[in-house]
């Protein structure tokens, strides 16, 4: 079988994203803006690489990247598993520490350690399907093996499960917590935000591309990204 031709710098890239304020917000033209959307758009523009914007659910983004072709996606964490089928640029954003959005009846307290919470008897954790929460949380979930409910719904839909006391809490970035609470329609009193005392600073987010996207394209994007330092 013949290998697929690499996607070169003068080829149009289909750039996928899923709306997730404040990270990714579609503007009137259909392009992505937001904490990760804006720097990604700027990187492609500075690199002189034409893009076709595409709103795609996260799970389907993974399928498209695995299938190859002129495809990239915005705001993904880099993991060893994903590096088997994708290429990553330099980071475009770094999250603030992850927090827990919990229902008020949950006994966990602000300032607790993550291991103490995950190891507590009867704890019920809501996690997103095929989603990495970064090495610290992923390894803690594997170590303590709490009872988990897996969802393929939106973050807002997931939060409604928390508000209904179907689960105790979900992991969210500090940046999006307030937005999600507002979107839930349940009111701020229906949730509590818990900051873990041992939670490290958030992980980096990247542009993830298929293996068929050439190294030259990645290099051009990296050069554009490097002009803006990520703290």
TrEMBL record:
It comes from the Bacteria. Keywords: Signal. It holds the Pfam family SBP_bac_3. Residues 19-227 form the Solute-binding protein family 3/N-terminal domain. Gene3D superfamilies: Periplasmic binding protein-like II. InterPro entries: Solute-binding_3/MltF_N (IPR001638). This is Transporter substrate-binding domain-containing protein.
């Amino acid at each position: 079988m013949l290998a697929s031709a690499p996607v070169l710098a003068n080829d149009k890239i289909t750039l996928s994203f899923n709306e997730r304020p404040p990270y990714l917000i579609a503007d009137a033209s259909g392009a992505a803006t937001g904490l990760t959307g804006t720097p990604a758009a700027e990187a492609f523009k500075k690199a002189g690489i034409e893009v076709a914007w595409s709103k795609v659910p996260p799970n389907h983004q993974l399928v498209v990247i695995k299938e190859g072709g002129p495809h990239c996606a915005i705001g993904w964490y880099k993991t060893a598993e994903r590096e088997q089928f994708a290429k990553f640029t330099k980071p475009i954003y770094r999250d603030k520490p992850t927090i827990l959005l919990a229902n008020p009846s949950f006994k966990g307290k602000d300032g607790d350690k993550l291991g103490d919470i995950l190891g507590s008897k009867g704890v019920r954790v809501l996690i997103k399907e095929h989603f990495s929460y970064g090495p610290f949380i992923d390894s803690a979930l594997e170590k303590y093996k709490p009872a988990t409910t897996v969802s393929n719904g939106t973050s807002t839909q997931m939060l409604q499960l928390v508000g209904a006391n179907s689960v105790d809490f979900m992991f969210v970035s500090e940046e999006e917590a307030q937005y999600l609470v507002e979107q839930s329609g349940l009111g701020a009193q229906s949730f509590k935000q818990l900051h873990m005392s041992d939670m490290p600073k958030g992980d980096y987010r990247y542009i993830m591309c298929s293996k068929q996207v050439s190294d030259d394209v990645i290099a051009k994007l990296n050069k554009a990204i490097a002009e803006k330092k990520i703290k």
